[in-house]
Amino acid sequence: LPSTVAVFDDLALNRALYLWLAAMAAVIEPTGDWVVDNMRATTAALQRFPGLGQRYAALRAAQQACLRILV
Known about the structure:
- By secondary structure, the chain is mainly alpha-helical.
- It has helices at 11-27, 34-48, 53-70.
- Helix 1 (11-27) packs across helix 2 and helix 1 crosses helix 3 (53-70).
């Protein structure tokens, strides 16, 4: 993982993203299919680290808001 993440203007969201990426790295089992691997890793991370559920929801909402701005 990088030493810092600065995707969002909000420091708390960047911290949540860093923790989320660490959780994903802990559970991902690469098969060569990037999309499927990440979908499975998301499910696994939420099951293994249920305390990240609220942070994951906040990250999804923030990402969706960014995408709406681009459209």
